[in-house]
Amino acid sequence: MKKITAILPTKKTATPHRAILLSLGLLLGSSILTPAMAAGDERLTALESKLNQAMNLIISLQKEIGALKKPTGGSDVKSGNMGKVVQTVQENTERLNDVEDLVLDLEDKTGSRALVKAFDALSIDIGGFLHSAVTYVDGEDGSATSFNRQTFELLLKAELGQSWSAFIAQAFIRESAPIFQDAEGRTDPTFRIPGAGISPTVIAWANYKSSDALNIRLGRFITPHGIINVDHFPAALLDPEQPQFLRPFGGQTIFANFMTGVNIHGQKFSEGGTLKYDLYVGNFVGNPKNLNYGGRVAYNIGNSGITIGANIGGGRRTSADAIGGASSDYLLYGGDLLYDKGKILWKSELFVTDEDLGEDRLAFYTQPAYRINDKWMAFYRFDFLDDGTGTGDKTEHAFGINYRPIQSVVLRSVFTLKEFDGVDASSPLGPLSEANVNSLQLSATFSF
Amino acid sequence: MKKNYFKISCTMALITGLALITPTSQAIAAEFAVIVNAANSMAGSEDEMRRQVKRIFMKQQSAWPGNVAAFPLDRSPTDAAHQAFLKNILGKTTQEMASHWLQVKQQQGTTPPRVVGASRILLRLVGKKEGGMGIVNVDDLAGAPTTIKVLFRFND
């Protein structure tokens, strides 16, 4: 090719086609002139050979031209298809931006901090809350005010494997419960002195999940009865002072609030709703010698917002040794109803017990609440308790409002009117006079 | 004077026309899709799928059919896909969802689904995790990896 182009005109615009034609012309010309100058077969053979060479050269040139015309990598630019190139660059730029955003997020979260690794768990989540309250109590023979509650609680969840997990709630509490210092214990309020500084392990369980329908939990857990005992934590409660039957913290006024033992639980989904069950057996901390047992079955009706629960339980309240060999066995029956939809959140629970020792017990509350907007919520609670002690029924009317400036902060104001029923002289602990007590509590819970 | 009336009339007609056209164009609903890993064997009516997706996102149900551990992913709270999902699939307000997560966190240490900002990264994550589930604008499905599939679509 180079030899031929060397004898072609040096005009830069000459195309390969033209070069081929000129080359062909020259070769043909030479083949015509040659017979005229020489004779004989040898020359003819030589000419044929040259013609073949020329033909081969033409074929070779055609191939090269074809190859040049074919699209190759990066040919979009050569062929002037800039639109496609710009689109590709834009896509890559967007992807790069996404990756850079992700890196920045990670940088924000980790920065130059030391990374914490769990010893053996797949993952660990840590959180908790702070809860503070100031309470004013106005009785018939006096009043008292105190910043009486300060709770710091750590929550820790570890995933040990796909089916295994553990959850711990460790509380550090300083509190001084309101009490009454008059002889009848109902007219002259004060706060318990000294205040208690305790650090109970509220929850500590390990859970094995076979499926959503079958979980086995071992350790210390919230006794799965009703609604508010399961809600339990101040951050999730409209009134951190739980209904009377759940007081005192860690007690067993109707049933033990906490249990150490085994809890089998699960849920089954259907088109109509969700069926949830809990079964447990364990010990109440106040009586480690005897087992308590029980369970709850609840059904959530689809999108209606309604959940209906049924509860049953039993056990022994106190070791027989501690009460001179008497029986303190009890049976528990209860029902609960939750409506949670739209603006309305309404919780109700009813429990009765059949006691071998003392009178049977009855507790009931209903607590309708109204979501005013995303930040404000108002509620009322009617709360009745006959604790079987023979000191008269106790009724509370609580009116409260919750304000959430941000999701993790709850500020509350709750006014409570408590009524003590009178007891006549025929009662072993009588007579006791009727009394009313008003209280106002301001509280704040900060979750993290 | 007649010309002025004509000009004013034309201008008012134009403004009225624009006012009528603008809300119409804004009212065009965006379309979103719930995507899962291509290996997901979930089948059934769309209603059933919506119910399961809701339970899985809220971590009430922890596994897909076939006992594959569910791995739901969320979008940022300001993302249109998140807001449409909240309204149309979960049927919850932001406040109600926040209360839900607060409650399950305190009761059993359950955390909300991880938030993924970019659609492309979400598509890759769902494609990588067998139990993966996420929400994307259908426009983001162009060029999506073959390791994901659309469970169902829903509107804004």
List keywords for this structure.
heterodimer, A: 448 residues, alpha+beta, two-stranded antiparallel ribbon, elongated, disordered N terminus, B: 156 residues, alpha/beta, five-stranded mixed β-sheet, two-stranded antiparallel sheet, 47% helix
Describe the structure.
The complex is a heterodimer of chains A (448) and B (156). Chain A has 448 residues and is α+β, with helices and mostly antiparallel strands. Chain A folds into 2 domains: 2-69, no CATH class; 123-447, Porin (Beta Barrel). Chain A is 21% helix and 46% strand. Chain A has a 16-stranded antiparallel barrel. In chain A, strands 4-5 form a two-stranded antiparallel ribbon. In chain A, strand 15 (362-371) and strand 16 form a beta hairpin. Chain B is an alpha/beta fold. Chain B has a single domain (31-155), classed as D-Maltodextrin-Binding Protein, domain 2 (3-Layer(aba) Sandwich). In chain B, the strands form 2 sheets. A 5-stranded mixed beta sheet of chain B has the order 5-4-6-1-7. Classes of the chains: A alpha+beta (448), B alpha/beta (156). Chains A and B meet through helix 5, strand 1, strand 2 and strand 3 of A and helix 2 and helix 4 of B.
Topology record:
The complex is a heterodimer of chains A (448) and B (156).
Chain A: H1 2-6, H2 16-37, H3 41-69, H4 75-78, H5 82-110, E1 123-139, E2 142-159, E3 164-175, E4 178-180, E5 189-191, E6 196-198, E7 201-211, E8 214-222, H6 228-231, E9 258-269, E10 273-284, E11 287-301, E12 306-316, E13 329-341, E14 344-355, E15 362-371, E16 376-386, E17 394-403, E18 409-420, E19 435-447
Antiparallel strand pairs in A: 1-2, 1-19, 2-3, 3-6, 3-7, 4-5, 7-8, 8-9, 9-10, 10-11, 11-12, 12-13, 13-14, 14-15, 15-16, 16-17, 17-18, 18-19
Chain B: H1 2-26, E1 31-37, H2 46-57, E2 63-64, E3 68-69, E4 71-74, H3 80-90, H4 94-108, E5 114-115, H5 119-128, E6 132-137, E7 148-155
Parallel strand pairs in B: 4-5, 4-6
Antiparallel strand pairs in B: 1-6, 1-7, 2-3
